[in-house]
Amino acid sequence: MGSLWITGIGPGGPAYMTPQAVEAITRADTLCGYTVYIELVRKALGDRLRKNLTILTTPMRQELERCRLAMEAAAAGSDVAMVCGGDAGIYGMAGPLLAMADDYPDVQIEIIPGLTAAVAGAAVLGAPLMNDFCVISLSDLMTPWQVIEKRLRAAAAGDFCICIYNPMSSRRREHLAKACRILMEEQSPDTPCGWVRNIGRPGQESRLLTLGMLAMEEVDMFTTVFIGNSRTRFRGPYMVTGRGYEDKAQD
Amino acid sequence: MGSLWITGIGPGGPAYMTPQAVEAITRADTLCGYTVYIELVRKALGDRLRKNLTILTTPMRQELERCRLAMEAAAAGSDVAMVCGGDAGIYGMAGPLLAMADDYPDVQIEIIPGLTAAVAGAAVLGAPLMNDFCVISLSDLMTPWQVIEKRLRAAAAGDFCICIYNPMSSRRREHLAKACRILMEEQSPDTPCGWVRNIGRPGQESRLLTLGMLAMEEVDMFTTVFIGNSRTRFRGPYMVTGRGYEDKAQD
After folding, report:
1. For residues A229 and A214, what is the distance between their CA atoms, to the nearest angstrom?
2. pTM of full prediction above 0.90
3. Which residues pair with B164 in a beta bridge?
4. pLDDT, tens digit, for every residue of B98-127?
5. Which of residues 92-151 of B touch A (CB under 8 A)?
């Protein structure tokens, strides 16, 4: 009977990987995950990985198949690290793995959290998520677009700051523009926004811009987008959402 | 001219602290932050901290004063780490510090993200935040209660999973119950929920319970609360929100 460590590696660079994540990955005899995350781990940890490591991977979009492979390997006695980009839970593999855990009662499961793009990307742009916020994925592979639209409207109605995952892909070029137009029914086109691409990895890029400009922006699937609320301001090279200390200080 | 590293240390234990955070804190000649975070850092890093370290701290609720002290020290040439529990940005000190950065153009500022309680606590309970979610603080010290209430209603209307920070304190014993009653106007009282106390620290505790039960629960300010959405289920010892892979597999 083996272990299954569902492991969030953060954005990918070693500076962001927690000791807990490094321990799981370096103890594992089997790594499972998207090829791109396995490569990030190889680059970050190199010689510290075990020799004769077994790599289990499947093509994109075969997540359930990959989860099944990982569980079967752990049930057969391997120590498996399922490598997730960012966090293990947030749009990660913890959900589908735990949903099939009943079938593998002998596998020891541990979930190891990691820095998700909302947290790591916010630090690049300043402090966009200083107050209550929402995280919304614009991918309609798993969630119908009408549900995504309902959530965007709810987020705007609640004056939440918003972090957007999967803002655009080659197959869904128009999603970010549609989302911005929905938000602009409630929010000013001057609302401070920003995006970060390849967070913490070579080629990291970022940009601050208004919501109106964001509606015309071309980004890609490696980009995380931040949309301010009524309290967000540009301050020098940063976007910063007010937390309220400043108001209190004037009381 | 010195540096100011606004540093998220995660929940506090060394297993959760990123190498980036450890580097900032061990390079700093001055640490600034709540006493409780400074103590966590001392326990986690001990001998790795610099000798003759200067500690700058102020009583609770004097956040702006503490930020000003940190900036002044960096402007005078110190290398200062502002130590934040969880993340540097999410309800952390990055916002008020960046808001005063204009006054200190020579200070080199870097924001170092950390594992916030939404991410670290979710990993304890299973996968409650597997899909779109909101983070809401129930503290009305900085945000008027009517804004908090508006956000709770918006989160329920959008069928978001919700992570609640500051659910209760001795001064605000009724906030969590009020929040649950607001959510139950939209959501079933059987909605799976959970809480985690002292995440990743000695004395960590957690509990799974329904939204109806949560409305009668006593928690404290060291507790983070998770409320599921319509797709969240109890599965053995976990709460898990459906991501959609399972439905897709049946298409």
Report:
1. 14
2. yes
3. B136, B225
4. 999 999 999 999 999 999 999 999 999 999
5. 92, 94-96, 98-99, 101-102, 111-116, 119-120, 122-124, 126-137, 141-143, 147-148, 150-151
